[in-house]
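User: My collaborator and I are trying to settle a disagreement about how two of our proteins should look. Neither of us wants to argue from intuition anymore, so we agreed to look at predicted structures for both before our next call. Could you fold the first one, then the second, and keep them clearly separated?

Assistant: That sounds like a sensible way to settle it. I'll keep them separate. The first protein:
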Amino acid sequence: MIVLGLSGLPHSQDHLRRTHPGISKLDERICQGLDSAAAIIVDGRLVAAAAEERFTGDKGTGALPLSAIDYCLREAGVTRDDVDLIAHGFDYERHRRAFEITGAPFDEVYAGATVIDGLTEAGWTRVAERFRPVRHHVSHAESALAPSGFDSALVVVSDGMGEAESMTIYRAAGGELESLHTQSIATSLGILYGIATRFLGFQFNSDEYKVMGLAPYGDPERFRPVFEKLARFDADRGAVVVDWPAGALAEPENGYPHARALLAEAAFTPSEPDGSIQRDEADFAASLQARLTDLLVDLVSYWLERTGERHLCLAGGTFLNCKSNQSIADLPLDGMFVQPASGDDGSALGAAYHVARTEGGGLAPVTGPFDPYLGPQYTEDDVRAALEARPDLTWRYVGQTDEYFAAAADDIAADRIIAWFSGRMEFGPRALGNRSILARPDGERIKDRINGAVKFREAFRPFAPAVLDADVDRLFVTRNFEPDRYMLCTAHVRPEARGTVDGIVHADDSARIQTVRPDLAPGFHRLLTGVRERTGAGVTVNTSFNVKGQPLIMDPATAIDTFAGIALDRLYIEGFVVEGKTQ
């Protein structure tokens, strides 16, 4: 049985832009159905998954993921007609009447027919009979539960919104999901965090990670009363309550101006962001982050106690917040899994899991950790052709040899900044060593050098470390749960190790770690082992191989062009060493 999973609503953002032609760039992601992706499951086994943005270069696109679909089919070695079922990570049909009463463009934007018609126009046949809509939060829940390997677990989904929900609590046993609690969009923690992000001058539903990165520079007590008044935990119902005044959530297409005015009245009037750390903004971000964390800890604690579960699965965009995940991981748990693609790209994966489990003959047993390296990979010939198209670059072929890995480790040890391109592309927003920029974490001004001359981004933005499993406990304080593998949880740096990893220590002495083990990333593990032999610690700066506004790089040509335009010392790509421009 072959199940294709899809996410995205292909007409959603186009409709927003068309009906609001003057919309600000900061507000054009205030719509549902972005981050489209495709995933494919063959006989219960996940074979491939990728986001459409990686193929088109349109970051966060919600367009019908035709390129990602074609990749998944190629990787699985199947045709369109071989696909038995098509799972979509939304099911709005049960809400049709409510949407039509409000005047929402249901048939144009939300109906499953938008996907069916899009595939049909692209040459697919029998789409309607194979199409299976899946509730959005069920898709998120399955994306975390299915690969976790847990026999039973508490599953928490939190995001901006599903069809009509913003949070759902499930109890899972025997692969089945029992819904225990749901919350409406009006009480969305994702929307609260997004509005606060927009208040600070960043893009809604895109730049929340910047606010998370700014928060450690601020005082969380200064604006704590603002958020305590706005959001609280109801311990009688096990619910998060967000007390927006009437009308506060009106005009989302204008960036929720009424909600932002309320925040300004209660706190301050923000300045336009200029990449620097401004006191009011940092304190605001710190208070927001602290409140989010407190609420999530209270929520998860309540439902763990009520259900008696000792294993936890998390999914939805809220749980890309690594700081909150760290505090959740400190709860009395025996195991914790966060889907690496917790945003809506991951709902394609979850929808496929759900349909494969319920209609497609079941899922293959989980025999190891979730493998996020699900995207395209490229051959030596692919890379050589891309390099030969750039006669202005100097390069040499070494092959995947000891010399190749030693040269890369030597460069890192010598405080050079390199790009590392290897194997299959990661699924999800985090670079996990296959499309990464790497550097020595105690290198001279390493954070400023990468932010300024390589990534072209705000100076306050932190970097993450990739660290060998053999060194993680020596350098960091962590419970070693699965999220550590995928850069989904921060950990405190041990005081005695601070000098070793100074370039990745954030203002609160934490770091968003990726623990590297040979089972998932043998090549990356081999490289870090070489770094350890040279520096005494198997740890590097690991940041995504892209520049500001660009999706994570997928293919050799994009990698080579990007390398040529930024201040990297070398590019290591599938056995080739690219030195730079010909003098």
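The second protein, kept apart from the first:
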Amino acid sequence: MRMCISLLIIMCFPVNTDAQFWKKWFRRKKKPKVEVVEKVDSIETVDSIALLARPISSDTVVNLVAYMPDDVKTDSLADFSDYLTCRVNDKVVNANGVQFNMIGVQGGTFLMGTTIDQYYRSEIDEYPCHNVALNTFYIGETEVTQELWQAVMGVNPSNFRDPQAPVEMVSWNDCQLFLSKLNAITGMEFRLPTEAEWEYAARGGCLSGHWMFAGDDFLDGLGWYVSNAAKTMPVKQKRPNELGLYDMSGNVAEWCYDWYGEYQDTCLTNPIGPLDGVNKCVRGGHWIDGTNAARVAFRYSLRPNSSNYHTGLRLVASVTQGDIDEAVNNPQPQRRHFADFSTQFLETETINVKGVDVNMIGVQGGVFLMGATLEQTEYGDVDEQPCHNVAISSFRIAQTEVTQALWKVVMGTNPSSHRGDNLPVENVSWNDCQLFIEKLNAITGRKFRLPSEAEWEYAARGGNLSKQYSFPGSNSCNEVAWNAHICKSTNPVAIMKPNELCIYDMGGNVAEWCDDWYAAYNILDLTNPGGPGYGANKVIRGSHWEDGQRYCHCSYRYSAKPEAKYYHTGFRLAL
């Protein structure tokens, strides 16, 4: 009966119905399953070896508040301890004549667990989604091959023999012995990845395209699984993910360092999992599994002494000061089909303009999916499609819209319909904004500008701290956006709840001019897009106090002629 209903539904829609529609149609949350397992004592000898390859848990004092002005609310940032976000070069390692590559993964924050791209196929142990901050680290370009295992251990335990295929038939305990010997040979400190490191790398780190699998929404081109493999296959035969990592979805599943346990709804820095448990985490799916197990959020577990013909390992190593110095002196080009872009951590800066302070929030660069993503589709319009990947360099954006106080000290006038120093300026055209910025730059010696449309949406979504809300900072519009349901005019800035980056009023109050000419989206991956070179209208973002809630979502866009002026449209500065 259920199958018949599903077929009837499918027949009612055209064949080319957008994939986002089907994701929305089938999204659902499973009920929790309670599973009781008997706890067993851990093996002390193996645990003592594992300590040699233990990841470092961050217990440093929360200090990101040092990067924010004293009067800025820092709830979203202060949840993380300090973490390392520098870029490092990839490196080649030799172990008894066998070379292998370690890929540098720049540290950052990400949303771990059942994110929107995973939602309609999710499992209960992938809940709740939670923000994680990770240090920069190295991870193996491929799974450990049989050739490398043989060179280190002197034996090959694998069921399917091929020097270039991943090693299997190795337990978590076996992996600890292998790591101990590999470290003695190389003088490095290799270990298994934490579950968080594994998922961050599988998702593409700060280059993430937000795919279901490790590099795409379609598995065939990425990984070996039950539909295209009858055994393990040589590494590097399929397409890599955004970081250049192979086989993170499929081929063999991969041991992680952590004991398996439930997720917690808290922000974590460099988590290493529970202190003890019954099973160890395993990630990535394998050649005898279906597509669901190959998703980047899928997780399962095995006893640390168990081994089978579909589970192997991938190496991780921590970053040294020498690695950091090498990257500074001889930087490698940025990976992937995006042009080079900066992901440098920028401190927030307060700039005083004739007695008026302007807080410019540092937004760390990254990759995001722009347009009517799944959490936006309830409200999304046709010009918000198609969704497309965009890489954005680090930049600064104003914490609030330009106030009337700031406009007056720069321009000497106040064009606004609703008067008040702490209200956003309005009744200003795009052309007026350019004149204001020209005078502001002459006063400050800086290079203020309007944000690009892509920068605006990236910041509104929370940058690399994004929790994928429908509105900028919440799934409840009235928490973050002045709109027609709760007000009848503009309101003072910085009253509503800020978003993840501590930026206010990106969903309402006044709409905001962007630098770009307005045009339809295309499907191409873009780096720092600035819109078309010409057009009739300029982009406006963010909705306003006279609009309804459906216009306050992160991806909403419209436009107006550059000379147009409205009592509900202002702007926000960028650097």
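Some points you might bring to the call about the second protein. The longest helix spans residues 172-186. The two ends are 58 Å apart (CA to CA).
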